[in-house]
């Protein structure tokens, strides 16, 4: 029996629709894009883990050393210019992470401030900062050591003012001498048990006492803003330290 042309066309159209539907069913479904990660609340502080990784990279990449050298060079240029014009010029230096490096314990303590405890596990932590200081093994920071040598060669008296307290004097003096800082006018330390809201509350009056003794402090160098706050210096130079903050 012959089909009409219209019936044949309809059958072909039906077959085409079935084939298209089958192809759609067999085609792999495109995966939906993953949901976007929500942004942190605008007032949330920086993530501590991210900050520690960034601080480690800053130190180990050489950027920290370059920034130290840049600030020390500025201080050195000022000392060269100013020292010849002053009768009794003085340079004030902080110790921790200014004259001497504490990177070994900073890394061992994972950027924590652990004051008590033994240090037998180094280079692993924890290691208490007091015991670390008593060990006297902090190496000199090269840019500051160069600045110290420049000051002494220029006739500038060097004073160390530190937050380390009096019972640490012997170990600190030994550490300074072993690292080449032996020729200094004084090492000023707070009495054992002293408490200050800010390091500046101790350090600024000690600089005033140096001035009262007849010196002109032409440069004050430290790694904390509190090392420099309170005046009593012609110029202040802040070394980089993203590793900890002392009020």
TrEMBL record:
What keywords would UniProt list here? Signal
Database matches in InterPro entries: Acid_phosphat_B-like, HAD-like_sf, HAD_sf
Annotated region Disordered: the residues are 26-50
Among Pfam families, the record links this protein to:
Acid_phosphat_B
Q: For bias kind Pro residues, which ranges apply? A: 31-44
Which Gene3D superfamilies does the entry link to? HAD superfamily/HAD-like
UniProt KW Signal keyword = yes
Matching entries from PANTHER family are given as: ACID PHOSPHATASE-LIKE PROTEIN
What is this protein's record name?
A: Acid phosphatase
Origin organism is: Methylobacterium durans
> What lineage is this protein's organism placed in?
Bacteria, Pseudomonadati, Pseudomonadota, Alphaproteobacteria, Hyphomicrobiales
